[in-house]
Amino acid sequence: MFCQHSIFPLGSMMDMPDRCAVCSQKMELEIGFYYGTGYVSYGLTVGLFVLYAIFFGVVFGFSYKDNSVYWYLGTGIAGVLLLQPWLMRLSRVLYLYLFVRYGQRKEGK
Ligand SMILES: [Zn+2]
């Protein structure tokens, strides 16, 4: 649903065609339709941090005696920043799914 298959070049990473090439579903249902994706990617990020906390706790363990909490936060933030382009795209895909059911086309205003 994006013009480029890859995320590079980053500048036009979020470009989308006006309509789906397969079913001609309108991609932007209304002006500013995708502003709400900020909340979707926020939720995904929080979810990733929770999963990473479980993983980190199991593999490395948390302790007050060393810097494990800072290592967790540092590597977690770095990871989320690296994943940001995919998180932004995934948010749009999920967001469109919320408003348009599969096999049911919806027109914008
Ligand atoms: Zn389609």
What does this 3D model show about the protein?
With 109 residues, the protein is mostly helical. It has a domain at 34-99. Helix content is 50%, strand content 0%. It is built from 2 helices and no strands. The chain has helices at residues 37-59, 68-99. α1 runs antiparallel to α2 (68-99). The two termini are 20 Å apart. The mean pLDDT is 93. The structure holds zinc ion. Zinc ion binds next to loops.
Based on the model shown, name its key terms.
109 residues; 2 helices; 0% strand; binds zinc ion
Give a short synopsis of this structure.
With 109 residues, the chain is mostly helical.
User: What is the mean predicted local confidence, pLDDT?
Assistant: 93
**Helix percent band:** 40-55%
| Main sheet specs | none
User: Which band does the percent of strand residues land in?
Assistant: under 5%
Q: Any idea what the shape is?
A: elongated
**What multimeric state do the chains show?**
single chain
> Structural class, please?
mainly alpha
In terms of topology, how is this protein built?
Elements: H1 37-59, H2 68-99
The site of zinc ion has 4 residues, from loops.
